[in-house]
Write a structure and sequence with these properties.
With 556 residues, the chain is mainly beta. The chain is built from five helices and 34 strands.
Length: 556
Amino acid sequence: MNRNSSLLFAIFLLASSLLAVNAGRFNCNQMSCGSASCCNDNKLGAICYNPSQYDCTTDNLNNLVLCSKGSGSCNGICFDSKNYHCAGNGLAQGAAQKTSVATPQTSAEVPKTSVEVPKTSQETPKTSTPSNTSPYCKPGTCGNGVSCCGINQCYLPTTHSCTYDSVLGRDNLCPVNFRSCKGGCYDPNIYSCKDSGLVYGKETSQEVKTSAANPQTSNTPVTSASTPKTSAVNPNPVPVPSTPTGGNLPTQTADLRIINNCKFTLWMEGRYGGKGAPIPGHSTTSTRALPGGYVDYVIPATGLSGTRFWAKYGCDANGKNCKIGDQMQYYPEGGCPTKGCTPPIDSLFEATFGCKKGSSCANSSPTTWFDTSQVDGYTIPYKVTLNGETNKCDCTSSGCGLKTIDATRLDLAKCPSGENLSAGGKVTNQNGRSLTNVDLRMIDKDTNSVLGCLSPCKKLSWEWGLNEGTVPTLYYCCPTPNPANCQIGQGCISSEGCRNGPVINTQFVNSIHQMAPGIYTYAYDDGVGLHACPAETVTYTMEFCPAGSGVYPHPL
């Protein structure tokens, strides 16, 4: 995260201190099942069910699992006790010598939530798959007679099915005859699924969402709740059109939609929190978007703090080993690409999403804070459009309103190739390299093109490895470790000292102010960088390579 982002997210964290990490997952105390029973399935969340057909069982790891009547559970997986039993690390062939089926949990029972944290979608299920391989289902992953769904979720087709969640646009493991809605499983005889989530009342055949209403790539089949899917799952959990759509995209209902308007494939990266975990509802951080395609992100009702979104370019078939965009270690296996992580200069959308109306924290955290920033550099031109009650955004004493953040004109042709970073002549040479004629361009030698533009701070600190607290780097990164006693000799520069220093006269800062007015270019830039809108009433659309943008990458 860049230095400006650190300052912004200090504000974000204060504004969102009450946000729940596992937001969006209901428990039985929050869901009314009417005459049905409720189970706090540790993997799937609260599920309403008919106790005459299902049992809320406790598996060998003391996890609650909803299974078909009479089934056993092992490592979070339901199994047919006539053909399998739980032994050692997982399922084993052969009838169980002894089954242990727990008494069905009713809605009146207190769920086991006080000490156990339910596993959310960003966590990786424990499987035998080596950590250095793709986490998605492969033939033979789960053994004979056991099918696989999503990220190595093994299941018995007799008890579970791999269903398509049309709201989130991904596969989800549910009990047989259950359907998936917004990441949770439900009985269609009790509930129906809308774009906003579950609605009490039996689902009709007209309400069942199909691929016709939810375009997908041809290799992502939709499976009904009663028909288990046994083939490997497409590693792109969010549907994207296979060809350019010409702007005729489905109506946006998600909190954030990122569109690829470039002429090449991008991989959209979505992360949150200190570990850079996937956005809830997504099983991976990277999602492929073909030209004209898009990725939707649905934010939990109780908000989400520390989110970051950007585009990766020049990646392999798994969205890794990218030419630009691999600025963080891979999740969850860790590590960087073979050639190392790329510089963190990607065009970013950063936000702490506030709580939506009706949620437990709606009164305490009703605001979404967000920004885009070029403090570290820039790559692909973009434009952010706000939809909904934009007249309530960015309210100050002079009024309210914000509709766009426009960085369409970001042009790598204008990235300085001869920048003066001598801090006003204080240091003209560093380890034999001239500081008066520095090339800020990130050049791809394979294609002889410019992939990105490093800010003066990132050029000196990230690429050259100079300490941010020493001259000349200090004048371009502007660290302020001790605001109460900020001294240059102690590696600290005040906000006033930064604004009056050499950074404001750099070609980099001046060119971005011309190309994208109002976007931060250094740590204490006076431009309008941090924005605020009411939660839920405003949605966001980020478009890469918007109409009118320049060529990317830029040929030398």
